[in-house]
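Fold it.
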Amino acid sequence: MKQRLSLQLHEDLADFSIDQETKAHIERQLLKLPQSYMTTFDSFCKALLEKYGYLVGVMPGFEVNASPELIQSTVLDQCFHKWIVNPKFQDYIRRHNLKSGNFTRIL
């Protein structure tokens, strides 16, 4: 992130349409860049929750799931396993000539 910002600031310095005051400001910011604290919004929020989460009821040691697809897959698996034993779902399978063995193998 710092590298991308540094590249952009250097490009801005090369822009002839920028006035000297702005260029001086950019140069000062470039000097401060190596010591600056930068993070994504998600990481910033996670750090806040790790430090102050107890104030809003977040359990210590919580983990952020970086993969929503994993949650989606887990929830769908749980739903399918509930549906497959449901008599209405089994009736649907019979009426549409679906073999439950093939269907459960997909799950």
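The CA atoms of residues 7 and 87 lie 62 Å apart.
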